[in-house]
Amino acid sequence: MRHYDREMQEVLGALKAGDQRPGLLLHVCCAPCSSSVLERLHAAFKLKVFFDNPNMDSGREYAWRLEEARRLVAQTGWAEEIIEAPYEPAAYREAIRGLEGEPEGGLRCRACFALRLSRAAREARARNLPYFTTTLTLSPRKDAALLNELGEAAGQEAGVAFLASDFKKRGGYPRSIELSRLHQLYRQDYCGCAFSKIERDRRRESCKQAADN
User: How far is CA 38 from the centre of its chain?
Assistant: First the structure.
C-alpha cells in the first residue's frame, strides 16, 4: 500500500533543499479545506489557487465559497494568485450522466473527482506549471487513494506532475478547523453538490428524530 503523505514529504524535502520554488496549481474545493494545505505547501511551492467546482448545487453556493477562498488568500498571502473558473454546472451534469442514483462515495463521486482533476491538470499545463494537486484529500470522507489515482492519470494525460498527497495526515484536518476559526471562514456541512445536500438533510432529520425519541 502506498503512503501518499510520505511520498509528498520526500518531494517537499528535496524542493526545500533547492534554491527555487517551482510553481504548483492547487485545485481547491473550499477555503476551509485549502487553509491547512496552503499553510503546508507555500514554503516549497509558488502556489496558484484554482477554484473550479462545477459540482456546486447553485451559483450562490459557488460564489460564496469562491469569495471565502479569495479572502483567505488575501489574508494569508500563502498563494500568489487565485484563478477563478466560471461556474459551469452543465459540465458536471454531463460527467455524472447515468450515475445520479449512485450512493455518496460511489461512481458518481468518482466521475466528479475525475472531471475536476482533469480540468486542473489542463489548467496547470496551459500555465506552464510543473505541478498540480488538490485539497480534496484533506477530507476524512474522501478516499485519498482514489483521488491520487485519478490525479496521476489526469497529470499523465496533460503532461503535468501530480503531487501525491493525503493532507488529512499529520493533523491536517484538525488544523483546517483551527485556521477556519482564526480566519472566520464559512464551513459548509455538505460537499457542494445537490446529492450531498440531500444526504445531509437526511442525516439532520435522522438526528432530530433520535433526539425527539
Answer: 11
